[in-house]
């Protein structure tokens, strides 16, 4: 069905029908000039936003629309968890190019709705319009954290332990694989990509999850990180952010960086440097955080979290300690979206 | 200066330097995974968002970047006022095409900052990336209203008076004029558009204001509208929204619709129907609201507000009463952004 048959309001009605409200705090949802929220008493409100543009942030050649919607929502939730908060509401703005049908947009929206169901988030508003160019997705997420309980980037202290959840570099290697298969498929209509044994890195790229579980585990363990952020641009870049904001330096150990075996195999197959992928690949959406040295035992007992180094005084700088014990300055080689180059090209 | 010289973080630093925080409620601004807000006790939080795309919502041939920034912010504030709230914070996401320099983006941002200074709003976050297509601007505004004091679209009751602030149709006629001059200038490098005596309609199109003053006046007069929204798509469209949400009908009088003489002159010059422009033009950003009949005297004493009709039972439908006393059904002929046609073309 052509979108023009429905018009803006018809399309919004269709996309947002049967949208149950999950939170007491969502007092008024879609359909007015603004949504009305009543955050829980004693809570701070968190706000984060992401803008995703076709052919800059995603390539519809290999990204299914439902996955794209899911990921677009989850990356925002990840930012809220990275503040030690809980995502509660999102607004979804779409700029839709003429080549999309109503069914395409329903597919995209079904991914957003799925993510909201999985993470318990209400869709409370947005804006929908036509785009003369590619697809535009702008999502803003509203979250809550106990008053004064939000964790910033700026609280890391000398001797704090640096921790990271999950593993790194997989989403980046997944992207490399997708790009390789895209090139291989050119001019070949019957091309079937072979992702056997590489499902994990593909999933990390196409359908990442936000670490709600880690935030819950930290809370259960009675650990309050001194600083935290999510790994979206790459570990190096994020470590430099934390150290700059906190006025510290850091040391991370190459042999402590968690890497999945599929990531390692793919790097070998593509003849790429594995540590570079893990340090600079980005889009991992894992949590990077620091805890006081006194929390060492508690952290060691937590599943899915690894201590990868420690915070130092600022004058020691930020460095990676390699397997042979030498130190290499950390540089932010993460993706610079203003360099206008697609990752992996 | 090329934007790639600065990179994303360099550009953000430059755009947001010396950004004073105006509100106690803004606990943490730009520079972390999310902003931290602490709304005033006893206040609800309002959220609205707008997505603006080049050549869909604006034409840089005649829209100066500073004005564009100003308008992009103000249209969001307008949505918050339309809920009987006060805008407090915005996030600003930009997709920047390669043809823009750092100075261009500074110009755009200076308009956004100016609007925030005029209306007392903090810029607390955003996302900046390159666009392979045109300029993309996505702004989300967070506002506050006293708990339960937000005014929705759905509260209009039979016999309520329908009121509108300012005048209507001017922004639309301003757009017609700008489009006419754009066409006239084609192939003529030395072309100087003649806007003499038409400054008001040009300003209404390029630099609209949100009616903060009317919200303050209503409060002073002790008037709480039963329903309210801002006129962005056109009076007809908005009236139908209010009546649909409230389960009512309405009658508005053609001869009561406030129209500025510049709007009328321009319509005559362009041989366009003036009432159509006022009913369906849109982008007026005036407030449309309903009040109980008992507030009639109070409303009559308010400057800049006009009673244009009244709410009826639903079965009477929504109609315009023309000067000769006949009734014409109201239709939403406002701009449908998904029809992918630019206004005025």
Mean pLDDT over the residues of chain A: 92
Which value, in Å, is the CA radius of gyration of chain A? 21 Å
State which percent range the strand residues of chain A make up. 15-25%
Which regions of chain A contain 5 or more consecutive residues with pLDDT less than 50? Answer: 339-345
Task: Provide tags for this entry.
homodimer, 345 residues, alpha+beta, seven-stranded mixed β-sheet, four-stranded mixed β-sheet, globular, disordered C terminus
Fold and architecture overview:
The structure is a homodimer of 345-residue chains. Chain A is an alpha+beta fold and 345 residues long. Helix content of chain A is 34%, strand content 25%. The first copy, chain A, has helices at 3-16, 65-81, 102-119, 170-185, 199-206, 212-220, 235-246, 261-269, 274-280, 296-301, and strands at 26-28, 35-37, 43-53, 86-97, 122-131, 136-146, 161-165, 227-230, 248-253, 287-291, 305-313, 318-321, 327-329. In chain A, the strands form 3 sheets. A 7-stranded mixed β-sheet of chain A has the order 8-10-7-11-9-12-13, sandwiched between helices. A 4-stranded mixed β-sheet of chain A has the order 3-6-4-5. The two termini of chain A are 35 Å apart. Residues 339-345 of chain A have low confidence and may be disordered. Chains A and B meet through helix 1, strand 2, strand 3, strand 4 and strand 5 of A and helix 1, strand 2, strand 3, strand 4 and strand 5 of B.
